[in-house]
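=== Structure Prediction Worksheet ===
Name of assembly: unnamed complex
Input type: mixed (protein and possibly other molecules)
Chain count: three
Listed entries:
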Amino acid sequence: MVTTLWAGLSIGAVYALVAIAYNIVFIGTRVFNFAQAYILMVGTFIAVEAASRFDLPLGVAIVVCAVAGALIGAVEEFIAVRPLARKGSHNELVTTLGIGVILSGIALVLWGSEPRAMPYLKEFGVLDVLGGRVTVGELSLIVVAIVVGVGMWLLSTRTSIGLTALATSEDRDAAMLRGVNVRGLATGAFALAGALVGAVAPLVATKTYATYHLGEGLAVKAFLVLALGGFGSMLGSLLAAGIVGILEMFAARYLGSDWQNITVFVLLLIVLVVLPHGLFSRGKAQERVV
Amino acid sequence: MSGLSIRGLSTGYGQIQVIRDLSLDCPSGQITAVLGRNGAGKTTLLSAVVGLIGSTGTVEYDGQAITGPAYARARAGIALVQEGKRVFRARTVEENLRIGGYVHRRRRGYIAQGLEAAYARFPILGEKRNLAAGLLSGGQQQMLAIAQALMLEPRVLLLDEPSAGLAPAIVQEVFGEVARLRDEGLCVVLVEQLVDNSLAIADRVAVLDHGRVALDERVADVADWSIFRDIYLGEEARS
Amino acid sequence: MRMSLRRYLTAPLWIIPLALGAVVLALPYLGTAPAVLRIIVSICLLALLVVGLNVTFGYSGELALGQAAFYAVGAYLAGYLAIQGFDLSITVLVALVAAAVVGLLTGIPGLRLGSWSMAMVTFFLVLLVPDVVTLLTEHTGGPSGLTGIPLPVLFGARLSTTGYYTLVVAVTIVFFVVIRNFIVSPHGQALRVMHTSPVLARSLGFSVTRLKLTAYLIGAAPAGVAGALFAYQDGYISPTSFGLSMAIVILAATIIGGSASIYGAVVGAAIMVIGPLRATGLQQYSLIIFGLILLVGALFFSGGIAGLARKLVRRYLVRDEVLPDAQAAVPSDDLISRLRGETLEVKGLVKRFGGNTALNDVSVTFAEGTVTGLIGPNGSGKTTLLNVVSGFYRPDEGTIRLGGDDLTTLQPHRIARRGVARTFQTPIIPQGLSVVETIAIAMQSAHGVTLASSILRLPGFARTRRRHRAQALELLALLDIAHLADVEASSLPLGTRRLVEVARALAADAKLVLLDEPASGLDEGEVAELAALIRKLRASGATIVLVEHNFEMVMSVSDHVYVLDTGRIVSEGDPDHVRSDPRVTEVYLGTALGAREEER
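=== Predicted Assembly ===
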């Protein structure tokens, strides 16, 4: 029972981290980056390689993955998002999905279709916490997700750059008139989000392993977390991710593992119908329509 | 001359040219009122000067060319207060001001000083510093928009219809502030629909009609006021 | 040889694809190799999936990735039922119904927020396929697949390989005809309107949610049926045929062929089926290639192959021409009687935005058969009032009644159907429609052709379309632009587009026409023409509200004028009264200008 709770919270932590990365991009550019979870997937492979082939310590692996994630994010913004903004069309869904598929394809070619286990943190084994079994990797994920979520919330509401990003997502022109390099900010948001999912990839891989189709499942679950927690809300994402993770694990435990995704899907449908603006929304300000 | 100087500016949207070969001087320490009927090209002119839309011709301040995208022009000290009380409605008053000081965020103590100065200038904003800007009244939003622009430490302040949607008493208040800014030495360009209130504080007046300058003089030198009635109310109104 | 746009749009060009379809149908009898026929079957099945996605993505603008899931639902149900000994007619029908049910279950939540949520819900749906298949292993064979699906039996007769081929091709042709009929009908044009501007669609009386859901379900239907047919192809199905890679293949085919096209679906499907088959060495790179297609296609070739073809046809084959019925059109008495307006009464209206009161206790009456001018400086609340009356803003207080009916809480499309029509500051005219079509869309929501009649081309369809054309031509004749009837509307100059918008607003049996700054951007001659037109409409009994900055024009055509300032009515009366009202001069010029003039 408590073991299931830990499992739920730790998988929820993974969803939260992806959702927070979605949020960073969303706040900075108003774009939903389909490929975000795929960048995490690439990070898990790089982490496995770092550990098994180059024997790098965990800290170095984290830095390498973060740099790789930031690069992929920035390149994605440059080739898949920026050209569309200039044309005024809204095909980002297709182009970012395209980037995700390309990343999957590259992972398949480079690393094959077999899941690869993550050597880091193996030595600690399994702990008994509050009457439930949990690995150090899982505990670290939970802590990291909370720290990152609260940190990003502070960054976006307490610092100049974060405030400016929030303002830019509200009114691009007005932000530009106050000296904000909106394009630079967009690239920065993609890079930061990429760096975030890259940096946590070694930890995530201890739980999920590295496989080329890791991105898909994470993408949809993190989307559910966003829908439940409210688009753009960091703290909402944290809470929603906990709910989704726990629900998923309890469904798997008591209904069977085939019910895991179906339960979560039903939750998504219910959320979209009943709470289209998320659990914690205070109601959207009325926007000018014409 | 010290101030903003526009030479041979042409611009428009798509194939429609709104402004053709327009030249205008706006001296520092003065208010230049730019008047004209809706569609005369006033807002378009401002958008071109701040770089929100592309244009040909030159814009200079004190002989120094103002070029590049909008954010670079903002960093060069050109601040525009857009029409429609355009503040970041979801952010609080204080956050709006901080965003205004974004360019100077690395200057130690700058933001704190700027906030203090803004609250001293507009005490009501200090009282409502933690309120979402969208919840302010129209007049307060307009003041916040101006205060936000001032956080940029601008050399040129461009105001697009600051009176729009405000009650007369509030307009007086806002215009009083604008006059004070001029007295502090700022170069102010005031695009307005209210002829009377604008002329009351302006040093120079330019009238735009169909994208051209129909009149450009010191307010004290204007001899024939009928042009305003013609342009605003049409020929018939005079008879 | 070049033809008119109308002839191009109405020419029996469908004969060409239909003839091609007939040839493909006849291939087995022309001695074509079985391997080729097998490829054609695969192309047909994929084309069915792709054409469905084109309806939702290309025409309605929602990226729905769930085609692969509908395909799976159809295949498994048909496979299971076929093993139980059911006839193909039953299995296909069940697949169709099941696809519609799954479509409703996912479409209603997915379309609630649009775009991402639709894409994500349908993406998730595809990911669930293996889970559901495993869960129902008893009936589906689980991960190892469902075997032993018998050869198809149609109405009791066992189909040969040729029979199966013929069936697949015939079903494909039928679906293409149906979907083509849907897309070129007013229903399809309504989708195009919504894609251009949801606001316009609502103000013409269309419910955006309903349009999108209809498109989504029409897109799901061929996918379900394709699945049912696929089950018989090898007598074996497994979850690997319906996974995410299938969803990606479908989307890539859509992008290559051109998402906003019908026949592009076949081209895209053919490329996807034949391409990878030929390049077996590239199998392991297929994901990368598909991803590149999505990226490059969406960035640079948003029209796909079909878009390129259409551009060429338009450039070299189409010219403008005035057709005889347009030359002969005159406004009839019937038209004049339909223009008759009603009275709209607004009482005590208050609208606040946060701490800002945009409208403060506004009461106005737009009397039947008159022109009411609504003027005021920028920010005075004119546009807000317009948006409240047409339902885009919900008022905080007050009531709005049209001819005795309460409109206060109605949705915009309901208000539009009740007879409140409007134009926009910048005319919104969807691309690719002629002037007559642009106007006829407005008649669709209230007096349109039914979906069934559009798809099946029942006699009522042609009758209604003829009537709509005749009525649109009469309106154009009234506005003196009948000679432009068959020109592409979005390519006209601004002034003429304004007139087209006015005609469109009138076409929906409007009881009240709101004109939002119709004179802005017009030169003096055009303004005079517009004023003349407004007088003409009033003479026909229309109720017109004119929101304008052009003081002189308002004064010259209005019977009654309201002056708004900071959300309040500060003056009202006939034009002479308002013109001489010192409060109005004050609003516009201030009090001191008169004094200045006198000083000099």
